[in-house]
Amino acid sequence: MKTTFWRLTKKDYYGVAIELQKHLPQLKSTYCEEIAFRLKGCNIEFYYTEKAPIELWIRLTMPFAFIVIVFLWLWLPFNFLITGYWRYKSIPLTNWLTKLKLI
Question: For 9-43, how does the pLDDT look when each residue is reduced to its tens digit (9 = 90+)?
Fold first, then answer.
């Protein structure tokens, strides 16, 4: 089962060049095409995150999430004794806490 934690999208070099021109005053006199060409030569990939609203039913589970976090934190030593790891391997739990922006 493949899960996605972040909504990442690859950004093209021309879009990055426009953003760089907006934020760096030294690049105001340089053409966007030249900046994009130089970025392509660096072999760097650029990504941006998409902002997505949190659904109402996810937000309503926030009080329950704090109880679950405290419970899991208290039982972490027992989990270590049983499995030998100081972490929980629960992808649905991680996805839920990520949607709540708690981790």
Answer: 788 899 899 989 999 989 888 898 999 998 888 88
Three-state DSSP class for residue 93: helix
Cα 23 off chain centre by: 23
Specify the pTM: 0.49
Domain boundaries, the chain: 8-49, 56-99
76-89: burial string, b at 16+ Cβ within 10 Å, e else: eeeeeeeeeeeeee
Q: What b/e readout covers 30-67, taking b as 16+ CB neighbours within 10 angstroms? A: eebeebbeebeeeeeeeeeeeeeeeeeeeeeeeeebee
